[in-house]
Amino acid sequence: MNDANAIDVAGVPASTLNLIDLSSSDIQRSVSLLKQACLDSGFFYVINHGVSQDLMEEVFAQSRRFFGLPSSEKMKLLRNEKHRGYTPLFDQLLDPANQINGDYKEGYYIGVEVPEDDPRAQKPHFGPNLWPSEDILPRWRQAMEKFASQALDVVKVVARIIALALDLEADFFDKPEIFGDPITTMRLLYYEGRVSDPSKGIYGAGAHSDFGFITLLATDDVPGLQICKNKDAKPQTWEYVQPMRGAFIVNLGDMLERWSNCIFRSTLHRVMGNGQERYSIAFFSEPNHDCVIECLPTCMSEENPPKFPPVQCQTYLSQRLNDTHADLNVYRREAA
User: Fold this and answer.
1) Which residue in 28, 103, 127, 143 has the most C-beta neighbors within 10 A?
2) What is the Cα–Cα distance from 85 to 51, expressed in whole angstroms?
3) Is the pLDDT of residue 28 over 80?
């Protein structure tokens, strides 16, 4: 983070997050660092993860090209029922108790590419993606698919460390019934240069916890991400997560919190705009559609019985997405 950006966030402390080197041969140290992070904030950095800096920069460049298109071009790729495609300003409302219009961000969803004639396309989170024309954005699709493939490899490495931290076998989450055919979603995000103002209900992204297993986040060097250190307290205390070039910020989702019986934390976070444009790339990973999320055997006892009923992954994910996104009929009425 450069000095100019540091001035913009003066008065709000920066979090000190654990940093995990995925190339390290000291697996016990990695497990210890990750476990402490998951117990404390639910956020940590990973470095040496295998996704090259060149590829990251290419995806950021392609993202800027897309969001720089005229609104009429972007709206031709408006998201569909499968959550593929463009999400306009205010499409998502993550914190209705405190927000007025919704998030001051634009986004683009890219999911698992499944042809329409594939039986798997009948599932709610699988199907064909919406891709910009090669004439308008050449090599755009290739960059996104390459990044998504490599990001999934990173998730699998992190999942093995999480399993060990939960006293499970390292390959627990690798089982075919859990991550044999996972739901993954890459989301490009663009925050216009607006200053957030909580007193007026204006946020880049409202306070929320992620829905799924874990999220990988790559950001540019503009600060904005904040995490809540005491979500049940009033007032809540927020800290900035500093951008780190080449690293992924990893955070736990609600499914992992449910799996771990709240031992590991899915932490509230939000994005606060400081007047600068900001870009980020989020990679959300969830297990198979029919995977049942229920308390892990290593996370329950007589003193700590399961806190949540079992729930199927696709049911939980669909509900959370529907709860936070605008009804597509709103756009159809506007276009009529």
Assistant:
1) 103
2) 24
3) yes
Residues 6 or more apart in contact with residue 219 via CB below 8 angstroms:
225, 243, 249, 278, 279, 280, 281
Distance CA(45)–CA(19), nearest Å, equals 5
The whole-number average pLDDT for the span 102-125 is 95
pLDDT tens digit string along 325-335?
888 888 877 77
Burial of residue 216, with CB atoms counted within 10 A of its CB: 0-12 exposed, 13-18 middle, 19 or more buried: buried
Q: Is 0.90 topped by the overall pTM?
A: yes
51 within 8 A of 154, measured Cβ to Cβ: yes
DSSP string over 147-202: HHHHHHHHHHHHHHHHHHHTTS-TTGGGSHHHHSS-EEEEEEEEE-S-B-BGGGTB
Cα 98 to the chain's mean position, in Å? 21
Give the pLDDT mean for 182-208: 95
pLDDT of residue 7: 31
**In 10 A of CB 296, how many CB atoms?**
19
Backbone phi, then psi, for 90, in 5-degree steps?
70, 5
233: exposed, middle or buried (Cβ count in 10 Å: 0-12, 13-18, 19+): exposed
What does pLDDT average to over the chain? 92
Total residue length of the chain: 336
The single residue listed with the structure tokens 């913009």 is 8
∠ CA(71), CA(243), CA(141), 5° rounding? Answer: 40
Buried b vs exposed e over 244-269: b needs ≥16 C-beta within 10 Å? beebbbbbbbbbbbbbbbebbbbbbb
pLDDT of residue 8: 41
**Cβ atoms of residues 74 and 49 within 8 Å:** no
Across 199-205, average pLDDT: 94
Task: Quickly count helices (H) and strands (E) in the chain.
Answer: 9, 16
Average pLDDT over residues 147-168: 98
Q: Judge whether 124 and 82 are in contact, CB under 8 Å.
A: yes
**pLDDT tens digits for range 37-63:** 999 999 999 999 999 999 999 999 999
